[in-house]
Design brief:
It contains nine helices and eight strands. The strands form two sheets. It has a six-stranded parallel beta sheet with strand order 5-4-1-6-7-8, with helices on both faces. A two-stranded antiparallel ribbon has the order 2-3. Strand 4, helix 6 and strand 5 form a beta-alpha-beta unit. It folds into two domains: 145 residues, 3-Layer(aba) Sandwich (Rossmann fold), CATH 3.40.50; 66 residues, DNA polymerase, domain 1 (Orthogonal Bundle). The protein is an alpha/beta fold. Helix 1 packs across helix 4 and helix 7 crosses helix 8.
C-alpha cells in the first residue's frame, strides 16, 4: 500500500440502495392526481437510473401524457417534495451491501458516495438506512461545480476524503458511473442488479458483479 489508504467510491441509486420502489411510488402519486394510470414497478424500474426529471418524463410518456419542458419543471419540484417525505418507506440496501461496507471500513479503506441525487437527499436517505456514518464524504449533484459523468466529480469526491486517485475504485450501476470513472482515470466495478438500460455490461466496466459479496475480490484485484 501507498502512504494513503485506498478509497472506494459508491454510486447510490441502483448501486448501494434499491430506491426504485419509493421513486416509482412518488411518480404514481403524481400520475394518479392527473387521472393517469400508475406504472407498475417492473415497467418503471428502468426509468429510475437517469434522475428524477427523466423518471417523470418517461413515466408520464408511458402513461400516455408526454410532458412539455415547463410542465416537467413544475412537476419536478412537487416530485422532490413528495419523495423526500417517503424517501425510505420501501427503499432498502441491496443484499450484502452493509456487510461489504463494514469489511472495507475495517480494512482501512476510505469510503465515499458520489451520486447525482442532491446531496441533501443522499444524506437523508443514507441516515434513514443507518449507514451514513460509514462514509467520509457523501457528495451529490450540487456539491461541486461538476457532476457525473464528468470525472472531476469523482476526483473531487476522492479528494474530500483525503484519498489518492491512483488508489481509488468507483462502484456503480450505469453508463454515467462507468464514464465518470473513465474520465477520472479510475477503475470501475459495475453491479448488474441496478437500473441500467441497456445492461451495464454493455459499457465494459473493469469488473462486473452480481452481489456485494463479490465486491471485495473485484476491488482488491483492481487495486493490485
Amino acid at each position: 500500500m501507498t502512504e494513503r489508504a485506498p478509497t472506494i467510491v459508491f454510486d447510490l441509486d441502483g448501486t448501494l440502495a434499491d430506491t426504485a420502489p419509493d421513486l416509482v411510488a412518488t411518480l404514481n402519486t403524481l400520475l394518479l392526481r392527473e387521472n393517469l394510470p400508475p406504472q407498475r414497478i417492473e415497467t418503471a424500474r428502468p426509468f429510475v437510473g437517469a434522475g428524477a426529471r427523466a423518471l417523470l418524463e418517461r413515466g408520464f410518456a408511458a402513461a400516455g401524457a408526454p410532458l412539455g419542458e415547463m410542465r416537467a419543471s413544475e412537476l419536478l419540484a412537487e416530485f422532490l417534495e413528495f419523495y423526500e417525505a417517503q424517501i425510505a418507506d420501501e427503499t432498502r440496501l441491496f443484499p450484502g451491501a452493509e456487510r461489504s461496507l463494514d469489511r472495507f471500513q475495517e480494512a482501512g479503506f476510505r469510503l465515499a458516495v458520489c451520486t447525482n441525487k442532491t446531496e441533501r437527499l443522499a444524506q437523508r436517505l443514507l441516515k434513514r438506512l443507518g449507514v451514513a456514518d460509514r462514509f467520509g464524504a457523501i457528495c451529490g449533484r450540487e456539491t461541486f461545480a461538476h457532476m457525473k459523468p464528468d470525472g472531476r466529480a469523482l476526483l473531487s469526491t476522492i479528494g474530500r476524503v483525503g484519498g489518492d486517485p491512483a488508489r481509488a475504485v468507483m462502484v456503480g450501476d450505469s453508463q454515467t458511473d462507468v464514464a465518470a470513472a473513465r474520465n477520472a482515470g479510475a477503475p470501475v466495478v459495475a453491479v448488474d442488479f441496478g437500473y441500467s438500460d441497456p445492461p451495464v455490461a454493455t459499457f465494459r466496466p473493469d469488473r462486473l458483479i452480481s452481489h456485494f459479496d463479490e465486491l471485495w475480490d473485484a476491488a482488491a484485484g483492481l487495486l493490485r
